[in-house]
């Protein structure tokens, strides 16, 4: 392979998206490059005043079948593939009257747009490109001699480095990008067709959830660093998940670049606010997140009330936190936050007054995002050494829990009003998770005490949730305790009795459930089981 700069004399152009094509072709024309083209692209170039050789002159055949057959031919593919440094190939090309093509400019049929618009089966199939990938692969394989531009994103770089010739390193770079784009394109087609039409058994056995056999990701941004300054990090977005309006698509209005940790905390805040909002119709929700855990959460009749109580849920942890709101942030709430130190604020809108106030706090990141859709059924991907773990998101909203009273003591209606909120609050705590939730005199429901991330559930309750709740001078018997997993022993019930908890929600399922229930009856504690756990590792 000869790593040399090569002149471009002939270019084959066939593009669906003609954005900036005029600028590119102008430079080619100035360098006396022969233009070869197909169908609509040929007409477009001729209308710009350029002389264009029809692809049919090379193939010896007309375009046929409504444009399905244009570039696929022995002559065109050979012109891209034969090796310019190989003496045998050069002799054979001359004998076969094959003239080299030095540049391919092609972007593929917009299959992704057809998927996004939920196109019909006929339209979907018509947007599967055949000739384009063949031309691109052939040109990319022979990057020793051929330049390939498979995206508009490459045009500026090419124009900056092309003066009639192009270097080997640039040809190779474009080829690598091309293979990556073709791979993503093929994955998208395979996933969509499998999802729509694949046999049920095949879909259910696919690697990921949502009937997706392959994951397709696209680079979005380089991050300043990872969890720590010495770690590199990058942001990617999925191209083939059910979610079309994830947090990654949100509008970032102002502030410093989001860090790796900011993204994780922002996602946690956005998810919990969305969950609670869907079970709190007509009310306002605020969540405060620190290190991916909710340290404050409140539902109230006004946004400002929910903000103040969520912040005061743990005002020490709220310092430097990430906040999410269920509705547009108003001026009063913005003023409150501008007097604090916060990293990120997420909401489905900001009033003009709020934006003016935040403009004075230029480092605060503002993210405009709608709430997460119900039952989005996103996939959760975590890496382990040498591989990935993939699962469905825990989409349960609490209201679907199958509550079962298992104790002699019945749970009061006041406590039952807290159940859904409590389950959702606890669901977003890192395991082992304990949530203490309550309602104040005005009827606002808040997260009062939390214990999370502990290997010992008793520590989560006794050393964390209990201590945080006691600081607020709230009577423990007015709080509902929610556990993300079952109590394996009666000792947790004994601790609840010691600190004054009289109402418990837990999933159940321990081999010692009877022992736990008997302990509740002994201490006059009401307990319901949900039959569903919510671990969050």
How would you characterize the overall build of this protein?
Helix 16 links the parallel strand 14 and strand 15. Helices cover 37% and strands 20% of the residues. Residues 201-211 have low confidence and may be disordered. The relative contact order is 0.07. The protein is elongated and about 95 Å long. The longest helix has 30 residues, at 168-197. The chain has 537 residues and is α/β, with parallel strands linked by helices. Helix 4 runs parallel beside helix 8 and helix 19 (457-470) runs parallel beside helix 20 (491-499). The strands form five sheets. A twelve-stranded mixed beta sheet has the order 10-15-14-13-11-12-20-19-21-22-23-18, with helices on both faces. Strands 4-3-2-5-6 form a five-stranded parallel beta sheet, with helices on both faces. A two-stranded antiparallel ribbon has the order 1-7. It has 21 helices and 23 strands. It has three domains: 6-193, Rossmann fold (3-Layer(aba) Sandwich), CATH 3.40.50.1380; 251-368, Cytidine Deaminase, domain 2; 396-529, 3-Layer(aba) Sandwich (Cytidine Deaminase, domain 2).
Total strand segments: 23
Going by CATH, the architecture of the largest domain would be 3-Layer(aba) Sandwich
| Total domain units | 3
Q: What structural class is derived from the secondary structure elements?
A: alpha/beta
Would you identify the regions where 5 or more consecutive residues have pLDDT less than 50?
Answer: 201-211
CATH-level-4 superfamily name of the largest domain = Methylglyoxal synthase-like domain
The CATH class label of the largest domain is Alpha Beta
Shape: elongated
Ends distance = 51 Å
**Strand content bin:** 15-25%
Q: Helicity range of the residues?
A: 25-40%
Q: From the 3D structure, determine the CATH topology of the largest domain.
A: Rossmann fold
Total count of helical runs of at least 4 residues: 21
Q: Write down the Rg.
A: 30 Å
What composes the largest sheet?
A: 12 strands, mixed
Summed over residues and divided by their number, the pLDDT gives a mean of 90
Strand order of the main beta sheet, please? 10-15-14-13-11-12-20-19-21-22-23-18
């Amino acid at each position: 392979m000869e790593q040399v700069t090569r002149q471009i004399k002939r270019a084959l152009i066939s593009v669906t998206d003609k954005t900036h094509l005029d600028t590119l072709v102008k430079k080619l024309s100035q360098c006396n490059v022969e233009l070869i083209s197909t169908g609509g692209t040929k007409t477009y170039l001729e209308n710009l005043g350029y002389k264009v050789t029809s692809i049919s002159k090379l193939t010896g055949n007309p375009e046929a079948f409504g444009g399905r057959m244009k570039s696929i031919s022995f002559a065109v593919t050979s012109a891209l593939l034969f090796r310019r440094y190989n003496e045998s190939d050069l002799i054979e090309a001359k004998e076969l009257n094959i003239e080299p093509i030095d540049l391919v400019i092609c972007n593929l049929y917009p299959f992704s747009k057809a998927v996004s618009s939920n196109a019909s089966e006929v339209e979907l199939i018509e947007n599967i490109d055949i000739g384009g990938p063949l031309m691109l692969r052939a040109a990319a394989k022979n990057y020793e001699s051929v330049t390939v531009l498979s995206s508009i994103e490459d045009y500026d770089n090419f124009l900056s480095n092309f003066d009639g010739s192009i270097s080997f390193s640039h040809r190779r770079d474009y080829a690598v990008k091309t293979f990556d784009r073709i791979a993503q394109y093929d994955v998208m087609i395979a996933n969509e067709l499998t999802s729509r039409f694949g046999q049920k058994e095949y879909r259910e056995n696919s690697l990921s959830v949502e009937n997706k056999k392959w994951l397709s990701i696209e680079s979005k941004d380089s991050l300043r660093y990872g969890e720590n300054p010495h770690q590199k990090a990058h942001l990617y977005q999925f191209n083939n998940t059910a979610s079309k309006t994830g947090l990654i698509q949100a509008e970032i209005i102002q502030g410093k670049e989001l860090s790796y940790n900011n993204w994780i905390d922002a996602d946690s805040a956005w998810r919990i606010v969305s969950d609670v909002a869907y079970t709190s119709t007509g009310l306002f929700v605020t969540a405060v997140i620190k290190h991916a855990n909710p340290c404050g959460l409140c539902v109230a009749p006004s946004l400002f009330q929910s903000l103040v109580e969520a912040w005061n849920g743990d005002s020490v942890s709220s310092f430097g936190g990430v906040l999410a709101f269920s509705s547009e942030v108003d001026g009063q709430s913005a003023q409150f936050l501008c007097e604090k130190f916060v990293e990120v604020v997420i909401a489905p809108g900001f009033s003009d007054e709020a934006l003016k106030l935040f403009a004075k706090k230029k480092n605060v990141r503002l993210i405009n995002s709608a709430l997460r859709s119900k039952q989005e059924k996103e996939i959760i991907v975590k890496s382990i050494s040498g591989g990935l773990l993939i699962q469905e998101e825990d989409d349960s909203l609490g209201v679907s829990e199958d509550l079962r009273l298992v104790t002699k003591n019945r749970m009061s209606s006041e406590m039952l009003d807290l159940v859904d909120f409590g389950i959702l609050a606890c669901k977003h705590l890192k395991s082992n998770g304990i949530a203490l939730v309550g309602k104040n005199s005005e009827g606002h429901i808040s997260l009062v005490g939390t214990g999370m991330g502990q290997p010992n559930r008793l520590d989560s309750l006794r050393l964390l949730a209990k201590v945080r709740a006691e600081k607020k001078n709230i009577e423990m018997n007015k709080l509902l305790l929610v556990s993300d997993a079952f109590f394996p022993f009666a000792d947790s019930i004994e601790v609840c009795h010691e600190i004054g908890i009289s109402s418990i929600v837990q999933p159940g399922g321990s081999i010692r459930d009877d022992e736990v229930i008997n302990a509740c009856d002994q201490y006059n504690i009401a307990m319901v089981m949900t039959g569903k756990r919510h671990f969050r590792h």
